[in-house]
Amino acid sequence: MYSIEQRVFLVLEYHRLERSPTATRRSFQKRFNVPKGPDANTIRKLFAKFERAGSVNDNRVENVGPSTQLALEDRPRIEWFIQDGTRPHHIEKVFRFLGEYFGNRVIALDYPKFTGTEMDWPTYSPYLTPCDYFLWGALKDTVYGNHRSTLDEPELTICVACNSISVETLKDVMSNFILRLRHLIFSNGEHFENIVFRLQRLLDLTFFRLLAEN
Prior knowledge:
Helix 1 (about 5-15) crosses helix 2 (about 20-30), helix 1 packs across helix 3 and helix 7 (about 130-145) packs across helix 8. This protein folds into three domains: about 5-60, no CATH class; about 75-125, no CATH class; about 125-210, no CATH class. The chain has helices at about 5-15, 20-30, 40-55, 65-75, 90-100, 110-115, 130-145, 150-165, 165-185, 195-214, and strands spanning about 80-85, 105-110. A two-stranded parallel ribbon has the order 1-2. Helix 5 links the parallel strand 1 (about 80-85) and strand 2. It contains ten helices and two strands. It is mainly alpha-helical. It is flat, with a radius of gyration of 23 Å. About 60% of the residues lie in helices and about 5% in strands. This is DUF4817 domain-containing protein. GO terms for molecular function: nucleic acid binding. It comes from Araneus ventricosus. InterPro entries: DUF4817, RNaseH_sf. Pfam families: DUF4817.
């Protein structure tokens, strides 16, 4: 039985080594310092599972739903769920799931039309979640950096890009989240990116002026 780390390594190496089971097995043996690696059939099955379900753990796409439900049931029901107006988001199946687990703690486009109450997603709202103001842009820079010839290549590139994000970067991202909340209050809920830019520009000019004086 292989660990999650080992499974991810096998999938990424199998792709990087142009789907060569032999080269993948040798790389696995060297990486984990083991005398024997997985056979070709095991490597191919693991990669096929990843292509089918987008996971090295779950065997079917449908498994994502139950695991998400269990995770939500274990959490105190005090959190709010926020989503924008991307088309797959505002369909009845999604709204029904959100209503079951979050009740009136949902901010989403067209959600009030489905429930008759609750809060709509404000149009052109400023980005607040780390995925919006950091992750998507960081991943796009990596994923779109090179031409991809098949659909599975971007998936693997995304995995590599996520694994390469350092703990220090994540700490900075979360610190920035608190700062963005303060800017949001100051701007009365309106866009504040231009305010942040002007403040950063002012700080830079002040810094360079102090350097010149010293």
